[in-house]
Amino acid sequence: MSSNRSLLTIIAGILTLVAVTVVVVLVAGDPKPQEFPPDSAEAAVQGYLGAWNERDIPTAYAFLSERVRASTSLEDYQRAADEFLIYGMPPNGPDRRISIGDASSEGDRTVVPVTVEELYGDGLNQNVSRSTRYLPMVRDADGWRIDESLIWLDPTYIDYPK
Amino acid sequence: MQTVRRLYVYLLSGITLGFLIYGLITLVEVALSALGVGGDGIGGRREQLSLAAALIGVGLPVWAIHWWFAERGLDPARPNAEDERSSTVRALYLTMVMIFLLGFGAFAARDLVREFALGFLPRPQDDFYGYSSGSGARSLATLFVTGAAWGYHVAIRRRDLARGPLEGAAAWLPRVYVYGATLTGLVITLQAFGDLARYVGETLWPLSGIQYGGERSYAFADAVSLLAVWTIGWIGHWWYAGRLLIAAGWRASSERAARLRLAFFVSVILAGAFSVIRLTAEAARAVLIPVLDATDAIGGNLGLTDLLRAVVVALVSAVPWAVAWWLHQRWMHEEALEADDPSREAVAARLDLHSVALVGLAFAAVGTGWLVGLLIDVVLGGPRTVGGSGFWRAELANFVPFTLIGLGVWVWRWWPIQARHQADPAAEAASTIRRSFLLVILAASVITSLGSLAYVLYRLFGSLLGANIGGGILELSMPLGALVAAGAVALYHGLALRRDLALRAAIEPEAPVVMPVAERSRRSLVLLGPPDGDSDAALGALREALPPGFTLDE
After folding, report:
1. What's the domain range around A69?
2. Quick one: which of B104, B247, B353, B522 has the fewest CB in 10 Å?
3. ipTM of the predicted assembly exceeds 0.85
4. What is the pLDDT of residues A7-18, one digit of tens each?
5. Which domain covers residue B381, as residue numbers?
């Protein structure tokens, strides 16, 4: 292959990559969420995050374990959630995305990894900050539940004066 | 032995000069503040005066003794005067002292101009960000003392140069200062111009939903002061470098042939190409954000004015970089054409083409890596995510311009490189510049590939061994993108390097069998000529005239 032809191939390849990426992001950029088995730990986490996304705090509260709910009433949880949302922290935004990984068990401990990615900076400085949290899960009478006191994905100790 | 002595003398001179200068700055500051010049902010004048007296008392005699020793070595009556004048240690000392003094002086001048500019601007009551230095007397004293010391060392250097030709490190080390200061001044000036353009843009078309306060005055004063001080620094040093080109005697020819001057031109071309691509990509990004519906991802309240301002500010900021790039490229070619060495123009052309191609390729490779990662992310990781489509659109708006503009610039410069290679493959394959270009790219892409591959394998082994490392495809997409882009770049340039090596091996004649020195007759000769004579040419002519079997080595 002559050098000019290889150069033209590279140009064509990159232009194709750009075109395909643009089309994929614009056309398929809003895929339907994966459907996890209804009684799986991943589905519980998906339901919890979906409820937060809709600002449906009572539903999100219902995805916490009996142990967590016993220590925090729905009213206290709602108050803490309202405060959390005041500080301009929408659970999901266009510049933040959350990905649910596969549940894994070790002994009697089950965790679901949840990766939060945030876009920051611009131009050459643009980058993605990524952090993965492992949500401890427990199987209650109602199915899999998150066994940690969380406001959205932040571990929180809620202790309001009665 | 002489080198060890010089190291001691100049090291001690440098350290004690620091003591002396700090003491003098403190003394002048106390005097100025006592006279009410530059504010009366300094507290504890007696303590400051004691400190100044102590530092001067220690620094002045020790510096004076060591500097006297250093200067005594240059006395023409002394046998080693020429060795002292042309010593690397002395050149290094003068270079370092001038760099430090220029740096501190420029900082002080910047503070003074900034304080002066702030006097005409609204400023907030509380200096929350600590922008204000608070002591004009300190800045004035620093500028005065470092300026005087800098002027003294410049005069010393000029005197050294006036006594005759200097070669090797004694010539090029101080050139690092001249061209380094010129480059620093130019880059800071153009950067400050961009900041000023941004300020003007935000003043003409204020950011949506932002109530400006007095803190913007600091940003404006910062840009103005940097622009004012470093424009003087840049033009002053560039003027001096230009004067050397037309100086009488050995200095003009030495300066014209200096590789550091060529390196300076290449550095400006690199910085210019980098900034023009970056700023043009920024303007393209501002256009793509509404086109790709990514406005929410970078700030929900952005309006048309914000995007228009981003485009105008980026393009206006790019103009001086483009002008600097074009001018220095032109000057480099013009000087190469006027050079005594006919190969200089080919060197300049290769440097120009390869340096810009390198910058274009870097942008294109970074953009391509991100786009491949993004594609993997959307196709394989999309269903696992909750929200975030604007996230992808924002990434697209950012990296499509990098890819396309970088690709355009790379092709623009790589095409003529390829044409030169086709026209004269042997000469291009033998070029050190081309080989360095290919090796730099190969090294960068191999390092990137290895880093990415190691991360991908870590995740793979982690999954196989059941390690709890989470993240899934999101953690893998960008390393995979980087691996694909860097691997492709390494492959393409690695093959080009391999072809060049094969070509060179084919055309290079086999090295002649040289008899061991011990078995050959040997005579030492001394070549003498006029002071401005071309000894290399004379040596070449002698070698040409040698009968078979004879060699002339230096």
Report:
1. 37-155
2. B522
3. no
4. 888 899 999 999
5. 354-507
